[in-house]
Write a structure and sequence with these properties.
The protein has about 300 residues and is mostly helical. It is about 70% helix and about 0% strand. It contains 16 helices and two strands. The chain has a two-stranded antiparallel ribbon. A hairpin with a 2-residue loop joins strand 1 and strand 2. Helix 3 crosses helix 10. The longest helix is centred in the C-terminal third of the chain and has 28 residues. The radius of gyration is 19 Å and the shape is globular. Bound molecules: geranylgeranyl diphosphate (GRG). The site of geranylgeranyl diphosphate has 17 residues, from helix 4, helix 8, helix 10 and helix 11.
Length: about 300
């Protein structure tokens, strides 16, 4: 199976799992269940669950019984997008080529949809996960020292108290600030995804360590590529508003070090991810190909 066929088949498994396990739209109160299904089932690359699947397969697991906890990663990711699009945060009306959830259902339901998806995710994680390490891994990736912390630092343009310590001293934000934001906002959930795959496949510590290094490199590369795409592609190609980073004066890799240096950093991170994918080994291992896809994607 080439990578395209692999991504397509695993995406279909994730989509089916999401559709079958989200509460039916007719469940009262219907508006929240309609909104949850609207937010989750409206497209998306499904990168995080596919990474968990690929990690579990590389570590020798049969994935069918693990699809529900892996799909939970997509609920978490979607919650972050729904909240990120809210008026108090990015105030965006376009996501995955459609109107954002709060634009369709109103702000209050938008907030509650994110809350409901996050809560649902932990129920799905607990269903097939006897290993509490796996649940803790995911929780710690997205807490205030993880994804939420990264989002807060992103909002205030750096790591210090607002305005960021560096900016207040007239030094401007540093590469350190930026790496903190990207590692927390994006790379930690991606790392937790591959670790979840490894843990549920009962992988040994050597494989888990290589999965962690793979996730950290591929995860940081993912967000640098996201920065580059924001300035290189159109809203139509991305399915979300392009050019927002510059418009909002966001701290990004191309803004701080230039596009060429940002691409070079992506290449270095890709090399590291591919090396670690080789250490993970396994008879079916698409992790190196997925890292290349993450770095070369156009949306
Ligand atoms: C709790 C109020 C409140 C807000 C939370 C945590 C948070 C807001 C936002 C998370 C930060 C965030 C949106 C990071 C961006 C990560 C990223 C690159 C998203 C795009 O992911 P893709 O390309 O999207 O995988 P698709 O649509 O393909 O799933």
């Amino acid at each position: 199976m080439n990578l395209d066929q692999y991504l397509k088949s695993r995406r279909a498994q994730v989509d089916r799992t999401l559709d079958e396990n989200l509460p039916p739209a007719a469940t009262p109160p219907t508006v929240i269940h309609e909104a949850m299904r609207y937010a989750v089932l409206g497209g998306g690359k499904r990168v995080r669950p596919i990474l968990a699947i690929a990690a579990a397969e590389a570590c020798g697991a049969k994935i069918e019984p693990l699809l529900v906890p892996f799909a939970a990663l997509e609920l978490i990711h979607t919650y972050s997008l729904v909240h990120d699009d809210l008026p108090a945060l990015d105030n965006d009306d376009l996501r995955r080529g459609r109107k954002t959830t709060h634009t369709v259902f109103g702000e209050a339901i938008g907030i509650l949809t994110g809350d409901a998806l996050l809560t649902e995710a932990f129920s799905w994680l607990a269903r097939a996960t006897a290993d509490v390490r796996a649940i803790r891994e995911v929780a710690e990736a997205i807490d205030s020292r993880g994804m939420i912390g990264g989002q807060v630092a992103d909002l205030q343009g750096g790591v210090g108290p607002p305005p960021s310590a560096a900016a207040a001293e007239g030094r401007g934000a540093t590469l350190e600030d930026l790496e903190f934001i990207h590692r927390n906002k994006t790379a930690k959930l991606i790392t937790a995804s591959v670790i979840l795959g490894g843990l549920l496949a009962n992988a040994p510590d050597t494989q888990l360590a290589a999965l962690r290094r793979y996730g950290q490199s591929a995860g940081l590369a993912f967000q640098i590529v996201d920065d580059l795409l924001d300035q290189e592609r159109t809203s139509e190609e991305l399915g979300k508003t392009a050019g927002k980073d510059v418009a909002q004066g966001k701290l990004t890799y191309p803004a701080l070090i230039g596009s060429a240096a940002a691409r070079k950093r992506v290449d270095e991170l890709l090399r590291d991810a591919v090396e670690n994918a080789a250490i993970i080994g396994g008879p079916v291992n698409y992790l190196a190909d997925i890292a290349r896809y993450i770095c070369e994607r156009r949306s």
